[in-house]
Amino acid sequence: MFGQRLTQWGCLLTRNRFLFFIAAILALSVERASASDGPGVVYVATNAVAGNSVLVFARSGDGQLTPAGSFPTGGLGTGAGLGNQGGLILTADNDWLFVVNAGSNEVSVFEVLSNGLQLTDRVASGGKMPVSVTFDRDVLYVLNAGGSVGAEDNISGFTLTRNGKLVPLAGSTRPLSATTTGPAEVSFNGNGNLLVVTEKNTNKIDIFEVERDGLTTGPFIHPSNGATPFGFTTGRHNRMFVSEAFGGAPHGSALSSYKLDRDADLESISASVPTNQTAACWAVLTPDQQFAYVTDTGSATITGYEVDAEGELSRLQADGSSAATGAGPIDAAISLSGRFLFTLNSGAHTVTGFRIGDDGELSPVSVAAGIPPGANGLAAR
Predict the structure, then answer these.
(1) CB proximity list for 346: less than 8 A, separation 6 or greater
(2) Tell me: the pLDDT tens digits for 156-167?
């Protein structure tokens, strides 16, 4: 009798596990299916030497882009590539937009309005040549790339007021692992208790612990799985996905996934999964976190990956080419619905749009031409 009950309990447990698995799959399907395909907006920073501006494009429900205005930041760009990711970002609630002015060592703040953008502040970045920004719970951190011999690579923090003003966070400026690290991106993790920086020149990943007052301790320095860690994106369960350009070696780039631990440690999940393409530099993750994409600057392609429940990566296409872009794809952004992926193509001076299928496949839907040379920074909603 006892053995019979054990068998019954085992069958019930197995059945419950199966039902839980089915429910999880259905939840992911509903999450993608319920994502709105309504109108949205795409933003691009010109990074122009004579005056930086944010170009606004209205996005239709089918992914078409229409110019909808240009809004000066009040600062200056460099007119050339910044070797970065995150030079222009939206807050999670889409109320605010931040953009770096790398040519004048400043950061600008815009309020996002229904009919465009309203500049609310422009402040010194806390260092030289800001290239990336990140925001969490009223705290903004800026990554300064030095920009000249002897200038320190650092991070510097600010608090955002209700009326869109940035106030420097006293004691927040901290150096990276060296003075010329070639930093690419700074970003909070999903919980906001860690801050991560990738260093292209040193092949290192810096992690800072973030206290409740917004100040950080660190950096805690970790070797990258692959050479030239570049752009990255963070997801649920403290996972992080980092592109690796491998110095631009032909067909030599990759994407790695990691687990970020609370004690600022870094655990590899999938190490340097090849793109089979050239110079993977920018990385994005779909909202449901089923797919990750990198732009391959050297081969003018996008490489897509499926992300499993453990954060492990597998290429969607054997050759790594999920879609062709215009020449020199750099920044990438995914719409809030998770249905559209956009790339800024530095060589072609275009923004290209792709629809993301339920299986992660990319289908081209739009091209916006006339993007100024040197444009840098892309965001979408």
Answers:
(1) 81, 297, 327, 328, 329, 330, 373, 374, 375, 376
(2) 999 999 999 999
Residue 261 — φ and ψ, nearest 5°? -95, 155
Q: Residue 37 is encoded by which pair of tokens?
A: 């395909």
Task: Give, in order, the Cα–Cα distances in Å from 7 to each of 15, 17, 21, 28, 327.
Answer: 12, 15, 21, 32, 62
Which residue is it, tokens 């030095």?
146
Give the span between the Cα atoms of 280 and 233, in whole angstroms: 13
Cα(296)–Cα(328) distance, integer angstroms: 8
- What is the mean predicted confidence (pLDDT) over 139-164? 91
> Would you call 175 exposed, middle or buried from its count of C-beta atoms within 10 A (0-12, 13-18, 19+)?
middle
Q: What is the pLDDT of residue 327?
A: 98
- C-alpha separations of 206 from 43, 176, 221, 239, 314 in Å: 28, 7, 5, 15, 26
| Confidence band, pLDDT 50/70/90 cuts, at residue 22 | very low
Share of residues in the chain with pLDDT > 70 (%): 90
CA atoms of 198 and 181, how far apart (whole Å) = 9
Q: Dihedral of the CA atoms 274, 276, 282, 283 (nearest 10)? A: -50
Task: Examine the pLDDT at 13 and tell me if it is beyond 90.
Answer: no
Burial level of 64, CB count in 10 A (0-12/13-18/19+)? middle
Phi, psi of 367 (to 5 degrees): -140, 125
DSSP 94-131: SSEEEEEETTTTEEEEEEEETTEEEEEEEEE-SSSSEE
**pTM here?**
0.90
Q: Is residue 264 within 8 Å of 209, Cβ to Cβ?
A: yes
